[in-house]
Design a protein that fits this description.
The chain is α+β, with helices and mostly antiparallel strands and 220 residues long. The chain is 48% helix and 16% strand. The chain contains five helices and nine strands.
Length: 220
């Protein structure tokens, strides 16, 4: 059995929740537009860079890689109550959280690269990984890691074969290599969009929590 209020009360509740749904939809659109804007600006920045840059080098000269064997998670019994995230380079990113206290990568910022799919993720917190196909990338001296990460994103790497790509195909790729100061300027610009997207995502989370709270209180 349902305990239904009057039609007038139902209409008031519907109108209020519809306004909140509209605001949530607007916030999702804001996030999508920010991502598109960042992608467009990134493409323009790297196109201009490649048109004017006089110094070119292999990606392997800008990055060094580490195999993930020391950081592989032993158990997949994940729980949100545990502290350490277990990562993948694809869209899922965080597979879960582990309570394992050994083999945690805590050397600072890095890029995780899926050697099969060529997906990349920038990471700035301690973590473990599940797949041995992950390469952990850090920058060589004189290079800005976030700049190289965004460069990899801009290349639109796509895997057409189920094989390992990094050593044979990615490291030898010739890319523009501006000065460290220029790399930092590009990083600063693109990071500013990340900050805006992060703020917009936090706001979306708050709207969703607010809606869930109101629903839980409304139908007691």
């Amino acid at each position: 059995e349902l305990h239904l209020p009057t039609t007038i009360e139902q209409n008031k509740i519907t109108s209020f929740l519809s306004l909140l749904d509209e605001r949530i939809a607007t916030q999702i659109k804001i996030i999508e537009d920010l991502k598109k804007l960042k992608s467009a600006i990134r493409a323009r920045v790297f196109k201009r860079l490649e048109s004017n840059c006089e110094c070119w080098t292999e990606i392997g000269n800008m990055l060094q890689y580490e195999q993930p064997s020391k950081y592989l998670v032993a158990s997949t019994e994940y729980s949100d109550s545990y502290a350490t995230p277990v990562l993948t380079a694809n869209k899922a990113f965080i597979l879960g959280y582990t309570d394992e206290e050994f083999g945690i990568y805590s050397k600072g910022e890095c890029v995780i690269f899926d050697d099969f799919t060529m997906d990349v993720k920038f990471v700035n917190f301690p973590f473990k990984v599940k797949s041995s196909a992950i390469k952990i990338l850090t920058s060589n001296s004189g290079n800005d890691l976030y700049f190289v990460y965004e460069y990899l994103q801009n290349l639109g790497l796509v895997s057409e074969e189920h094989k390992r790509h990094y050593i044979s195909e990615i490291e030898p790729m010739i890319v523009a290599c501006p000065t460290f100061e220029e790399q930092q300027n590009i990083s600063k610009l693109l990071r500013s969009f990340d900050n805006k997207i992060e703020c917009a995502n936090r706001e979306l989370t708050l709207y969703n929590k607010k809606k869930q709270y109101l629903l839980s209180q409304m139908f007691i």
